[in-house]
Amino acid sequence: MAPRPTDGHVTDRALAAARGDRAALDEFVRATRDDVRGFLVHLAGADEADDLLQETYLRAVRSLPGFTGDGPARAWLLAIARRAAADAVRDAVRRPRTVAVDDWEAVNAPRGRASDEAVLVGALVDRLEPDRRDAFVLTQLLGLAYADAAQVCGCPVGTIRSRVARAREDLVAALEPGRTIASG
């Protein structure tokens, strides 16, 4: 597995892409795709993540000429992803739809223990209050610095720190017998 590109490298690629370098744009997308998709899975679910990933990069490419490199490009891109997910939620609320499941037995098939634990952790994270979930996913799962997460969320660094701390408390409390997370 290749090492994760540094924020400086990703930002350099974004700036080169903003100047019209197509190879830099391809490298920028490859360097950020996994983080952006992971964030979108937590925001909107796996079923919506790929569509939102495409929408995020379409918005980013249109916005690249205005990217100045004052902050990390990864944080800039995750802020775009967050807005794309929020827009999708607003659209979904306006136009509810149903989805047919052809093979309900496959959906309910038993999974292995590791998979069940991952599903449990994912479900607990998904039930966190949205601001806490965003801060937790950005810093603890995607590894963003608190300052970068603050930029993505549009709030002070101290707010990110308190949201992460409260998210951890909520997760620990939810693992205690008889407790649940009061979702937001």
TrEMBL record:
GO terms for biological process: DNA-templated transcription initiation. Residues 121-171 form the RNA polymerase sigma factor 70 region 4 type domain. Belongs to the sigma-70 factor family. ECF subfamily. The keyword Transcription applies. Residues 29-94 form the RNA polymerase sigma-70 region domain. Transmembrane segments: none annotated. It comes from the Bacteria. The keyword Transcription regulation applies. This is RNA polymerase, sigma-24 subunit, ECF subfamily.
